[in-house]
Amino acid sequence: MDLDALRANLQCIRQLVGPTRRVITVVKADAYGHGLRQIAALMMQSGTDMFGVANLAEAAAIQSVGLGWPILMLGACLPAEVESAVRDDVRPTLSSLTEAKWFSQAAVRQRRQVRVHLKIDTGMSRLGVAPEDALALVQSIRELPGLELEGLYTHFAAAENDVRFSKRQQQSFDRVVQAAIETGVRPEWIHAHNSAGLLSQPIGRCTAVRPGLLVYGLLPTTHRRIPPIVRDSLQPALAWKCRLSLVKSLPKGVTISYGRTLRTKQPLRVGILTAGYGDGYLRSAGERACVLVQGRRCRILGRITMDQMIVDLSAVAPVTSGEEVVLVGRQGDETITITELADWTGTIPWEVLTNITHRVPRVYLGGHAA
Ligand SMILES: *Cc1c(COP(=O)(O)O)cnc(C)c1O
After folding, report:
1. Neighbouring residues of 78: CB distance < 8 A, sequence distance ≥ 6
2. Which string of DSSP letters, residue by residue, matches 64-100?
3. 93 touches ligand 1 (CB under 6 Å)
4. 3-state secondary structure at position 350
5. Best of 9, 16, 26, 338 to mutate for ligand 1, by most ligand atoms within 8 A of CB?
6. How large is the angle between the packed helices 131-143 and 163-182, nearest 10 degrees?
7. Would you call 245 exposed, middle or buried from its count of C-beta atoms within 10 A (0-12, 13-18, 19+)?
């Protein structure tokens, strides 16, 4: 993990959104597989304004690194979690009056003020209150003791490719925000933009943005024009490497790996890799998968197994066991991106990242690694 790249990416996002808007850095799912504690420490040093997490365990992990940073829980709190969310000062996402009442009661019991973010469901049909019910809920939140409406937010469902729908979502959200403000509330945090939203939708009256993928230096797949600062300065922070554990020659006519899906047509020099699907390298990458050895693309042969893969070394100069192999990242003049690996497996960069298992040690370079 290149911490300097992460730091630069946050700066790049700041440049994109302007000095008056705040950044909620999304660090759910172990900071997209990069390691939550390390990334949280770096983001604290780099001056994120808030963290976005999926659950209370992630919030606690951030607080174990440093106290005082605002944390917004993007998931809903279970009834059994409400007391501890209040105790730990985690901002909950509210979608309903029921949740608002739980938090109010817990706030009163603990003699605390709870800062809440109300989510408006403008088209994702996941968390959030329907736009037509939002104002009544805003009113209830104002009246319930112990609650402070700190934020209003929504989430785009198709910012990558459906500009019209995103625009409708934004208009619907804007109407709620405007109406709420007219009733006298002043939520400080008004936010909607995930990474794809940031690249394609005007930020308008939002006071904050909520990027995940961009922070880690990756672009969502989009047909939209990428803003030049993003295109020129975003850097992937993650490289994924393993080693050759054995190099050997196979004779002509033998089959390779489980299921015997491949047969050698001539003698073939192959290497055995120290990574497999047990490390999160998706087995479905199948026949399209390549890795880098000595800066050259080398094909994965036969099925990917749990702990090992077999790679065709016929394109590279003789190498020995111990040689570094790049699964994702740069080596010499060649690069394999997370997005490319996602394409091979028919999935999205987010899944590739969060699928890398804990067997793979995370190594931190640059920055002030915690
Ligand atoms: C995950 C998430 C984000 C960040 O999404 P990216 O596409 O990775 O930028 C933002 N908001 C919410 C509510 C999320 O769940």
Report:
1. none
2. HH-S---EEE-SPPPGGGHHHHHHTTPBPEE-SHHHH
3. no
4. helix
5. 26
6. 30
7. middle
Task: Report pLDDT digits (tens) over 64-89.
Answer: 999 999 999 999 999 999 999 999 99
pLDDT, position 166:
97
Q: 3-17 and 36-46 are packed helices; what angle lies between their axes, rounded to 10 degrees?
A: 50
pLDDT of residue 225: 85
Distance between Cα 52 and ligand 1 center (Å): 8
Asked whether the beta carbons of 62 and 85 are under 8 A apart, the reply is no
Q: How confident is the model at residue 108 (pLDDT cuts 50, 70, 90)?
A: very high
pLDDT > 80? residue 223:
no
146 sits in the region (left: phi over 0; alpha: psi -120 to 50; else beta) called left
Say if CB 288 and CB 344 are below 8 A apart: yes
Is residue 28 annotated as part of the catalytic site, yes or no?
Answer: yes
Cβ-Cβ contacts under 8 Å for 193 (sequence gap 6 or more) = 156, 159, 201, 203, 206, 209, 210, 211
Q: Which of 209, 203, 206 is CA-nearest to residue 177?
A: 206
pLDDT on residue 370: 46
Q: Is the CB of 194 under 6 A from ligand 1?
A: yes
Least confident interval from 174-178, 201-205, 321-325, 357-361? 201-205
Q: Which residue has the tokens 């909950």?
A: 92
Mean pLDDT of 342-361: 97
Burial (CB < 10 A; 0-12, 13-18, 19+), residue 141, is buried
Q: Identify the residue whose C-alpha is closest to ligand 1 atom 15.
A: 74
Q: What is the pLDDT of residue 26?
A: 98
User: Residue 285 contacts by C-beta under 8 Å, 6 or more apart in sequence?
Assistant: 300, 304, 341, 344, 345
229: confidence class by pLDDT, cuts 50, 70, 90:
confident
CA–centroid distance, 74 to ligand 1, in Å, is 9
Q: What is the pLDDT of residues 240-271, one digit of tens each?
A: 999 999 999 999 999 999 999 999 999 999 99
Tell me if residue 119 is catalytic. no
Spell out the residues 6+ positions from residue 37 whose beta carbon is closer than 8 angstroms to its own.
61, 62, 64, 65, 370
